[in-house]
Amino acid sequence: MDTARFPKQTRRDRLGAFVVFTSLALLAACEGPHVAQAAEDQPAISSQKIGDICSKELSYDVTGPYYASCRNYLSRHAQPQPAVASTADPAEHRACEQIGLAKDTPDYRSCVQELYQLDISAAHL
């Protein structure tokens, strides 16, 4: 009699596992767009603000290639919570703070270094 119950038990276990995996897949699929929508609702920093940082703060010519490079870099690295920058810091430091990068972090140091390199390249024109 045990041999007759064994195939039924195996089918029941498989069906249960299928239901569990299907339920998990549906939950993951439903949660994905919700999380993506929440991220889109909070723009890190406006495109206009980034343009102002590059043209006014860093003094790049808006028709030049370094202005576009500056905008692209800052847009990719902007954080949801922009910080208030100190006016005593150099322009590159202020720009990185204004896009929300915290001082003394690797991202902040990379940002400052990238903007310094852009500035050096722009000075050679």
Main attributes of the structure:
5 helices; mainly alpha; 125 residues
How confident overall, as mean pLDDT? Answer: 77
Structural category is: mainly alpha
Helix content: over 70%
End-to-end Cα distance, whole Å, is: 90 Å
H/E topology pattern: HHHHH
- Total count of strands: 0
Number of helices: 5
Number of domains: 2
Q: How would you portray this structure in words?
A:
- The protein is mainly alpha-helical and 125 residues long.
- The protein has helices at residues 2-41, 47-57, 65-77, 91-98, 106-123.
- It folds into two domains: 1-41; 47-123, no CATH class.
- The chain contains five helices and no strands.
- Helix 2 (47-57) packs across helix 3, helix 3 (65-77) packs antiparallel against helix 5 and helix 4 (91-98) packs across helix 5 (106-123).
Quick description:
The chain has 125 residues and is mainly α. The chain has helices spanning 2-41, 47-57, 65-77, 91-98, 106-123.
Compile the SSE list and pairings.
Elements: H1 2-41, H2 47-57, H3 65-77, H4 91-98, H5 106-123
Helix pairs in contact: 2-3, 3-5, 4-5
